[in-house]
Amino acid sequence: MADLTASFHDHTFQTPLMNASGVYCYTTEELDNLLASKAGTLVTKSATINYRAGNPEPRYRNLALGSINSMGLPNEGLAYYLDYVLKKQADPTVPTLFLSVAGISMAEDLDMLSTIDQSDFNGLTELNLSCPNVPGKPQVAYDFEATEKMLAAAFERFHKPLGVKLPPYFDLTQFDIVAQILNQYPLAYINTINSIGNGLYIDVDSETVAIKPKGGFGGLGGAYVLPTALANVHAFRQRLNPEIAIIGTGGIENGADVFAHLLAGADLVQVGTQLMKDGPDVFTRLAAELADIMNAKGYHKLADFKGKLKTL
Ligand code: RRO
């Protein structure tokens, strides 16, 4: 019988599955439901220092091939999520949790990292450098100079395990440049990819866009993004120091998609659009489908195939 146990640095999770930040992780009730599911762990909604209402609705739409969103960073504020993970880490039955932050400015990011550093949080912190949906705020990780400055300043004050959430890159030279920057820092992991920013879905019958903010432009998720996500996971696995783990996010609809992410080099995988569509029961199905594939192939554990993608 396939063993789905996933290792991530010195942490062990029952399955390699978790939610993608921004999906089903806004409230303590949603977070508790994730903990009760087959997800191996969870990540909280990217937080700002203070509560944010986010962009006007409708701001998320499921589409036949995925989803489009321009949520605009709605969240309860860092204290809410930090309080949740601190309470949970006192419970030995709860796995190590991920806490995500996404400041509107570098100063806000650094402020939040200092708060987390000075707290008792002993889980993994994720710095989201790739929110595509705050009007007037470009994604930090598409500005290589800003990314380098951010990481340098972050590691001056932050002494706990830190990962970064990256946007998709599309050119091999971008992978080279970004990996060269990331390899200079003691990152625990990268999470790739965030949604493909600023897509535009058009409904031809009604001749309208699908969401209200930004005239309809929004981040794409789901089947639209799977090959881009796999490319980013694999390109970074080929370039990053082996100590930097990878969370693969993007386009997972079934167990085969989970298998593909792991094969490309992901250590854990996150599910966004499909979790939005199905709720936390999706993890039961994904775990069963992944186990079926491993059993059929004669693989007993994730390490039997993780990162072992073959080329022609
Ligand atoms: O809240 C959002 O609009 C959002 C964020 Br912070 C993000 O990182 N990725 C995304 O697709 N939406």
From TrEMBL:
Pathway membership: Pyrimidine metabolism; UMP biosynthesis via de novo pathway
CDD domains, alphabetized: DHOD_1A_like
EC number, UniProt record: 1.3.98.1
Catalytic reactions on record: (S)-dihydroorotate + fumarate = orotate + succinate
Gene3D superfamilies: Aldolase class I (3.20.20.70), Dihydroorotate Dehydrogenase A, chain A, domain 2 (2.30.26.10)
Domain Dihydroorotate dehydrogenase catalytic stretches: 4-294
Keyword Cytoplasm attributed: yes
Superkingdom of the organism of origin: Bacteria
Known cofactor(s): FMN
InterPro entries registered for this protein in UniProt: Aldolase_TIM, DHO_dehydrogenase, DHOD_1A, Dihydro_DH_chainA_dom2, Dihydroorotate_DH_1_2, Dihydroorotate_DH_cat, Dihydroorotate_DH_CS
Oligomer and partners: Homodimer.
Family statement: Belongs to the dihydroorotate dehydrogenase family. Type 1 subfamily.
Name of the protein described by the UniProt record: dihydroorotate oxidase (fumarate)
Lineage summary: Bacteria, Bacillati, Bacillota, Bacilli, Lactobacillales
